[in-house]
Amino acid sequence: MADSRLKIAYLCDFSPLDPHMYSGGNRRMHDALQQHVGDVTILPQGWGLAEPLRRAIARMPLHMALRLRWRAHLALAPLIARKVETELKRDRYDVLFTTYAFHALSRVSPPYPMLTAFTSDATQTIYRNSEVGRAHPSRYPGGRLLDAWVESREREVFRNTDLLLWPSRWIKDEADALYGLDPDRSLEVPWGAGLKDAPPETTVPPLGRDHPLELLIVGRDWFAKGGPTALATMTALRARGIDARLTVIGCVPPSELWSDHVTVHPQLDKTVPAELALFDDAFRRAHFLMQPSYESYGFAFCEASAHALPALCLDVGGVPVRDGINGHALAPGSEATAFANLIETYIDAPERYRALACTARHEFDTRLNWDAWGRSVAGSLHAALAKRDGPTQAEPPCSGSCPGPMVHPAE
């Protein structure tokens, strides 16, 4: 069984063929399943009889559509689930694998025996109640009125899903406690980096008081990713006589913060070779990914490890930074002085920095890559199927009184 390829129906509210949705994670998971687990069929994202509403929501401004889409889907789940079940009847699948969109699984009753699996780095309720959610409060009045209903729908979906694959210990522990999940079905499987190919063996840039210090921050929102703290850290280090510099990828800091020591790439598309080269070069030259953000995971931390780049962040959510292995996660609320002090200890002990860079790359090679995720998921799916189906009934051994092989007259 472990060597056979499974037939997988892939369910999400956006197609995994879009390399940008869900920060590219949806595409990486689809490709890893195809490579390591089996043959993947993407189920349509349509809502059946409610499709006109889905299209109307899609035409709304993005900030409105994001909040309305999944709530409307959840409310119409009994209707939309029929469309999913109809698609499942078109073939015979071993696994219904759902990413991110728990609402897409709501009310779905597979039309024949199949394993259901789900992965996400957060749930709406856990995110809202966490330090991450409190750092990004809702700006829309009345949004909390549906909280109890949403949590009840989450509990129903997760308790009825055969295998839950969480990318961090944080989300696994929170989900197990909140929804009362069976720990044998709720597993931690780290996600990988948002890279098509792993970078080759990297050269650790020299670090010392006689070298420029390169800091890097990556993300779409300057404030949400901790940009002000990153910039303040650079400023504090410069005040101590260290030639600190900051490169920003993916967002634009306020213009009054720009200086000769700040390089900004408002957006880099990694599917464009020239822009990917700029992205890789920024990671290769940097000494630290300086990202004190409030987020539930963060692919940039995996990408940093892939480039042997230690990450500095806050110990919140499920950020994939293990203290002293691929960086350091400081206590929530830590300010620029704490980060500057930590960086300075490595400037004065470059051999410690080199060791940290090497273990960061090892963390990527062994844990934070999609091949490792795919192999782990394959093992978990096969094990769950074997457990569900039970042992194969073997033929009883010969007692010694059974007749010999039958010989046909023609023989």
From TrEMBL:
Gene3D superfamilies: Glycogen Phosphorylase B. Residues 386-411 are annotated as: Disordered. Pfam families: Glyco_trans_1_4. One of its GO terms (molecular function) is glycosyltransferase activity. This is Uncharacterized protein.
